[in-house]
Backbone:
């Protein structure tokens, strides 16, 4: 079954790559329209999934994630329209040159090809990924969560109708309509047909994909994020940046996990930052030197265990550590960071420049919250993933990062000397 | 052993990434100087390898590839000086923007990290890769062929002395001094330390790497290359382009393998192109329709077998096929090309533009020889590999393609709203 899906994807890929921008945008607009027009049907199918999940005793957070309602569906449709409004990267020409050998050369953006996307309960991912894939001329094989099967079927129907109406192959977006987990392993083995695997889920899913596929896996979305408070930092303002990075949305990958404080300001800074964040429900894991600076101790402050500096909290917990200087801070980051988002708070330009030069994370900040690492905040208009791998793309991946390029050389019956 | 090498590479990587351009160029200059100064010693060690290979009965072509002489060593040293003279991509800043959220954002080029390079007999690869790696701030783990062990030891000594003299870690370039093939498999398993695997060798080596590693493998260097002679082509000039693409250096990946001829010009064109190339020793594999156009038939013209259109010849053999039109030509290319280098010979701009838009190979040509797909010819100054994969880089990979980027965001204690 999966092999057949792979073959069909490859065939559809050649056709979709040639679709022009208008044609692709028409598909997206029709999907958005139909999501609203078919609202009742989609929500009815979604109720089936929600009821089954409730019966099966799934956690309320999970059930919430798979639940659609009119307002959420409106949001999904609006996102599709936004993607339609973005510039099409495919066909863009760049790096033009006329070489001394006479060749007129340039690069031209083309789709990556076939995306394999593996995700969990959220049905909005089905439409999000569909919109990004179609816009960039990529075909996609989608493997959603088994608990969302009825909803996804209804959504994929909408997608297929829009493709068909606009004379594009329905196999441009294929949905693996089989909740057997063996299909995931088979999808990961389709290296003859699939160009890249995009897992949308937690660390375990990423690890499973990497360990079971020869296809390039876009690894990302895991952030153990640091802010270093240098001795020259404006402490008042530093507290607000840390407060924002930790509390604005603690469940996401760019939320702050660790604060490193220069020993020269630890005694003054730590009690103040703890007081400010504790008031909003944050609890703390402090190594001994940090702990000794926090008075009075409360039940919300614990001695950090060995693994606390290698933990992505995804909740209102913050690790605290005192360091001797910038070097110790950067050593700690090199050892413990997932290379997602790390920053320095300082008034010293030399220290800031050293931090920028020497900390090698996907996003490096000076006097800014780690929460900015995001396709929307970075002005990309859309986001497929936040890559923490090193090849192809790092950090937020937008439409352009779903493309590659080919070289185009034009001559007048030119031969190589 | 390999795990230790991986750890040491990761540590050296942080240090080498911070080396400035002057420091890196000084290392390269010293390597070039010492290759000349130590010439006698290096050639003496090389003689040992050549003698052992002769005794072991290795093929003359293989022995030639591993043989150094004063002129070849001069060439290797000159290549190192040329890499030193190229601009350093590391630290380059691009895509500057000040966003509406207040963040000043740009991208900054950084080394890929740790390269794992697996190659065969040619000792010049040891120095080539070393020069490219050091220039781009990348650390490398080199696994050369067992038949070149003595030569490689002498070369690596030169490299290590140059690193040490210039206060850079000798572990920046580590050589796996053990010809047990198990070390290759262990290198491929170092996904915690190695960022990319670069195989330098034939299709079998590439396949082995891809099948035995979770690390991204730069696949490339396999080219089944096509030229399509359209009905509007200038036939006289087309013959010369085909002659160049096939005969100028038949043993390399960008040499021509297949000529597709529009049926409207097949009768006129095929006898002429066959006569011209046969005079230089080319033999032909023609499908029936092509064959019917070639008169008189000689012993150098065979009926093409089923696999002849899926074969990279690497020698003076050329496959010939007549097609009905551009669509059939592009269908054939889509099915049989390795997406390395494919071109059209035509006077019709519309046909040329369709070919450019719809043929998705790393390099697509109009009225030019496929032999141009090369880092030097493309003006990159150096070449690590010619990628036929889709992610990260396609076609000739120069210094820039050995780097990635990080995002740098600067604010004034900026928080996300």
Residues:
């Amino acid at each position: 079954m999966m092999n057949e899906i792979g073959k069909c994807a490859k065939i559809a890929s050649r056709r979709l790559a040639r679709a022009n921008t208008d044609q692709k945008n028409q598909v997206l607009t029709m999907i958005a329209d139909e999501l609203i027009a078919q609202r009742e049907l989609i929500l009815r199918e979604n109720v089936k999934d929600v009821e089954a999940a409730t019966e099966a005793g799934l956690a309320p957070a999970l059930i919430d994630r798979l639940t659609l309602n009119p307002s959420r569906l409106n949001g999904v449709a609006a996102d599709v329209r936004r993607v339609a409004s973005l510039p099409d990267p495919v066909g863009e020409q760049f790096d033009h040159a006329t070489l001394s050998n006479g060749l007129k050369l340039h690069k031209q953006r083309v789709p990556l090809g076939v995306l394999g996307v593996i995700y969990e309960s959220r049905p909005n991912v089905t439409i999000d990924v569909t919109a990004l894939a179609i816009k960039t001329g990529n075909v996609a094989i989608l493997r959603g969560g088994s608990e969302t099967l009825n909803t996804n079927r209804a959504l994929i129907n909408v997608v297929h109708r829009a493709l068909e109406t606009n004379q594009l192959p329905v196999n441009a977006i294929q949905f693996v309509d089989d909740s057997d987990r063996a299909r995931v392993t088979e999808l990961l083995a389709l290296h003859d047909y699939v160009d890249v695997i995009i897992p949308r889920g937690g660390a375990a899913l990423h690890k499973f994909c990497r360990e079971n596929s020869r296809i390039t896996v876009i690894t990302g979305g895991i952030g153990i994020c640091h802010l270093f408070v240098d001795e020259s930092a404006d402490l008042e303002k530093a507290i607000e940046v840390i407060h924002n990075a930790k509390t604005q949305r603690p469940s996401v990958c760019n939320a702050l996990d660790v604060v490193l404080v220069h020993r020269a300001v630890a005694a003054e800074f730590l009690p103040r930052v703890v007081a400010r964040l504790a008031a909003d429900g944050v609890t703390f894991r402090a190594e001994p030197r940090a702990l000794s600076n926090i008075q009075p101790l409360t039940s919300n402050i614990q001695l950090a265990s060995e693994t606390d500096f290698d933990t992505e909290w995804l909740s209102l917990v913050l690790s605290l550590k005192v360091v001797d200087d910038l070097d110790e801070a950067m050593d700690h980051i090199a050892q413990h960071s997932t290379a997602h988002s790390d920053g320095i708070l300082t008034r010293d330009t030399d220290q800031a420049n050293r931090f920028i030069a020497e900390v090698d994370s996907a996003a490096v900040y000076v006097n800014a919250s780690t929460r900015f690492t995001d396709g929307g905040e970075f002005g990309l208009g859309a986001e497929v993933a936040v890559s923490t791998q090193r090849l192809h793309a790092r950090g937020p991946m937008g439409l352009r990062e779903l493309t590659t390029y080919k070289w185009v050389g034009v001559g007048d019956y030119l031969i190589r000397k």
